[in-house]
Every structure is written in C-alpha cells, then in structure tokens.
Amino acid sequence: MSEEKRKKASLVVFSGDMDKLFGAFIIATSAAAANMDVTMFFTFWGLRALKKKVRTGKSLFGRMLGMMYGGDILRATPSKMSFFGIGRWMFKKMMKAKNVASLPELREAAIDLGVKLYGCQMSMDVMEIPREKMIDEVTDCVGAAFYVDQAQQSEISLFI
Amino acid sequence: MSENITIAMTLDLKGLLCPMPVVKLAQAIKNVEIGDVIEASATDPGVLADIPAWANTSGNELVSIDQGEVIVFRVRRLK
Question: How many folded domains does chain A comprise?
C-alpha cells in the first residue's frame, strides 16, 4: 500500500480453551482490520487452534495425549463450566442463536485479513504434533526468539 | 451537511456481532477506490463505539454515523 510503516501486534496463544481462543481471534482480526500486521504465535495448548481433525502422537505418551486432547479447533472446551462437553455445546448454541462468528469463521477471517499464524516448534515436538497435522495456512513453525523479535517491534503484545 | 456524497458500495452488516462488522468492513474497503464512500447498516449497538475507533486506527474517515434501530454509517477510504 503506502510507504508509511504499518503498526504491529503480536499475540502468544498459550491456551486452547474455547473462550480464550475467541478472545485471541477477535483481537487479532480487529487489529488486522485496523491495518496492523498481526502475528499469532501458538504454543502448547494453543496448538489446538492450528490442528487438523486428525489423531496425533507417535510414542505411547504422545498417542495418549492425542487421544485425550484430540481434535481440531471445534473440540476446544470453555475454561469454565466445561462439564465434559456440555458447556461447549451450550455456548455454541447460545452463540449461534446470537449470530456470533464461530472459531473456524474467525480463524478464516484472520487468514483472509493477512494475520500470520505460527506454530511453536518446541511444543509441536514435545506434543508430537507434526506440521502436516496442522492446517495448510500455518505460516511457519518457529521458536521463542522469533516471537521476542516480533514482540519487540509491536505496539500491542499479548499473552492469552 | 447537505453535500452530495456518492456511495460506491453498500454493506449489510445487520445481525452481525463484534468483531464481524469491522472485519467485513475492512475486507470490503479494499474493493473500492481511495476517496470512495461505503455506506453500511448494522444492528449491533457495539458499532457505535467500534466504527469510530476502527476509522481512527485504520486511517480511514468516518463521514457519518446515525443512531437508530438500524445504525447507518458512512466511511471514506483514505488509504
């Protein structure tokens, strides 16, 4: 666009909770809509937001984790009142009734607005979630130094 | 306030909640020329605060915003 320097926002998404993912994607899309360059760095439980709906894990523990914590972004449960999936079901119903965008819709909007999605390579290694089990739109898999570099250049930096 | 403004695009944002009115607006504004005006209608009262804020952060101009059961606002693309 123009010569002027665009402002930046960078978010660490540590949580894989449904409600916190909503917060993360709502802020990311709003910042991107405001012409900011937005970086989302997904680590640990947050990797759920990038996962395809596939089984993960190689070792015994990795497969156990994949079973207990399997599924894609739609399987995220709220941080409170989860009740083994009833909470997720209830919130989805309530949000749909009020026409709030779903998590996949928000993620798609973020991608469309140019938000960069990064996976934390170390968490991916530990949790045995390889790149090919994540959505194609993931920009790259990087480390903490990359995030620090991004955050240093950012007007907004959040840990969610 | 009686200047004639040509509307380059109209946008129906009724029924949408935060952050979608702003997201849709940001997506749409790329499709009009610089200097063009978009007229949009929305029902979420949150846009009364969010659209002026978006205009400020995105560097576009809020031409008008009319409160009502349906909120109608006009923004001009500046960059």
Answer: 1
CA–CA dist A23, A15 (Å, integer):
11
What tens digit of pLDDT does each residue of B23-70 get? 999 999 999 999 999 999 999 999 999 999 999 999 999 999 999 999
| Chain B hits for A99, Cβ within 8 Å | 15-17
Question: CB-based contact (8 Å) between B30 and chain A?
Answer: no
The nearest alpha carbon in chain A to B52 belongs to A34
Q: Are B26 and A33 inside 8 Å of each other by CB?
A: yes
pLDDT mean for each 10 residues of chain A (160 residues): 79 96 98 96 96 91 87 91 88 91 96 97 93 95 93 96
CATH code for the domain in which residue A17 is found: 3.40.1260.10
Q: Is residue A142 part of a domain?
A: yes
Q: How many domains, chain B?
A: 1
Is the CB of B54 inside 8 Å of chain A's CB atoms?
yes
A33–B18 CB contact, under 8 Å = no
pTM of the model: 0.90
